[in-house]
Design a protein that fits this description.
Blueprint lengths: L5 H27 L28 H27 L5 H24 L7
Subcellular location: Cell membrane; Membrane
Catalytic activity: a quinone + NADH + 5 H(+)(in) = a quinol + NAD(+) + 4 H(+)(out)
Keywords: Membrane, NAD, Quinone, Transmembrane, Transmembrane helix, Transport
C-alpha cells in the first residue's frame, strides 16, 4: 500500500471497519431487545406532560433573531481566541490589530442595525 493512493486506501479500510462495527452493534441491539409496543409507549412524550391538542404552536420571530445574534457572537468569539494567541507573535502587531478592529466594526454595525430596528427589545 505504498504510493499516492495507499493512505487513501487505509482511510477507506478503517472507515469500512468502523461502519461495520456500528452496523453490527445496531443489528445486535435489534435482535436482543424486547419488542412490546403498547398504546402508552407509542404516544408523544412532552417533558412528562400528557400531550393535549394538536402538535402545532406559534412562536414569535424575535426568538429566532436572538438565536441569530447568539450565533454572530459565537462566531465572533471563535475568531477572537486565535487572534489573541497570534497577536503577541513577532511581526503581527499593528496589522492584526487593525484587521480585528475592522472585523469588530462589522459585528458592531450589525448590532447597531438590530438595535435601530428595535429587534433587541424583549416585550
Amino acid at each position: 500500500m505504498d504510493g499516492y493512493f495507499g493512505s487513501y486506501a487505509l482511510v477507506a479500510a478503517l472507515l469500512a471497519i468502523g461502519v461495520a462495527i456500528v452496523a453490527g452493534a445496531l443489528f445486535a441491539n435489534r435482535l436482543l431487545r424486547p419488542n412490546r409496543p403498547t398504546p402508552e409507549k407509542l404516544t408523544t412524550y412532552e417533558c412528562g406532560v400528557d400531550p393535549v391538542g394538536e402538535g402545532w404552536a406559534q412562536s414569535q420571530v424575535r426568538y429566532y433573531v436572538f438565536t441569530y445574534l447568539y450565533v454572530v457572537f459565537a462566531v465572533d468569539a471563535v475568531f477572537l481566541f486565535p487572534w489573541a494567541t497570534v497577536f503577541d507573535a513577532p511581526g503581527y502587531g499593528l496589522t492584526t490589530l487593525v484587521e480585528m478592529f475592522v472585523f469588530l466594526g462589522f459585528i458592531a454595525l450589525g448590532i447597531v442595525y438590530a438595535w435601530r430596528k428595535r429587534v433587541l427589545t424583549w416585550t
